[in-house]
Amino acid sequence: MSGINDGGGGLRRSWRSGWLARLLVAVGVLAGAVLVSASPAQAYVGPNLLRNWATGRCLDSNRNGNVYTSPCDASRGNRFQLWQPEKIGQQDHDVVRLKNVETGMCISWGRWGYPVANRGTVYTSADCIQDLGAWEAWGTSWTMVQFRDIHIGGCLDSNGAGEVYYLECNSSGYQKWRLGY
Known about the structure:
Elements: H1 10-37, E1 48-52, E2 58-61, E3 67-70, E4 82-90, E5 94-100, E6 106-112, E7 120-125, E8 135-139, E9 145-149, E10 154-158, E11 164-168, E12 177-179
Antiparallel strand pairs: 1-4, 1-12, 2-3, 4-5, 5-8, 6-7, 7-11, 8-9, 10-11
């Protein structure tokens, strides 16, 4: 404690430099958080629920390849609602496949306009390598992401009745998903 009364401001100088160091660290942490939140959707986030913004329902599937939404099981007791986004490439945004944790199958898209006009079918397939399961993840984070098919540009969509399909991309909340509850 020899610097307390040395007249040269020893205590004050160490307090000031400590305060300045803490301020610089805080500014650095905040800048890092802003950069992370403004980055494109990253596909290395781990398995979680995929919740639809408009309906509040979660993406779900079964071993028969059916894809639908149902009320979210936030306790994660329903492993058919857990999805693992896996990065498989890069275009304008990350290209991902959406793999179901319980079945190991990936979301794929099928024929356009069948069985309902102006929308395409969605199912899960055990062949996760195929191109029909490649989706571009559009969004600023995994809190609001839109999945666009890389070939024809249709987006993963759903409705309040629990149906999942793909449609021409639009800005509705029915095409926006959140990873996590």
